[in-house]
Amino acid sequence: MGEDQISPDAEVFWSSGFFNINLTLVTTWAVMALLIIGAWLITRRLSSGPRMSRWQNALEVIVTMLRNQIREISGQDPHRYLAFVGTLFLFILVSNLLVVFPGYVPPTASLSTTAALAVAVFVAVPVFAITHQGLRTYLRSYLRPNPFMLPFNIISELSRTLALAVRLFGNVMSFTKIVAILLVIAPLIFPAVLNALGLLTGVVQAYIFAVLATVYISANSQTERSDDHSDHATAPDANEPSRA
What we know:
two-stranded antiparallel sheet, 4% strand, hydrogen ion transport, cell membrane
């Protein structure tokens, strides 16, 4: 990608009318194919004994880490969110880590990719909440603490989705841009250092996105549960007999 291009969307391989195949689409599908094939190769011969492959061991470490993080963040059973949050984390992680290959531009450096990931979280929030609480309870959460907060709660939902997309896009795109500039200035000095920094940045960005997605998805059910606990906590006091 040239220095004057800040997004892989600018590199178009094929175009016809409104449809075009650019570098973002190519790398996105390549990452998805890599994840699918990798998951099939690792899980086709799973072992429950002491002798297991290194790839299965690595995958179990990642799954265990995700379970613990989701449980700590949401305070709920991680099984409900593991598939969705884990898919987001692995896709962003692999997309960013492949930056070690020369000429590769991660699809997360495109606003279209990060917007799609943010929209997926935006849709997942009501889906998980309605599945867990029911439609009526979920819609009632927009009227808290009073009905006048309805427009502000809706704006909050939209703004955090926008922030989720822009934050990931801005961090990955800016790092890619800096790498392109430094490679032009000193191509023999910076590549190794920037590759190491790119790996660290890719892991951090994937982790932050997964954490924020977990917080957004579990926030409504946590609020509802807290309110229920408050109601249960105050109810016995109202029914207590007078001590006088």
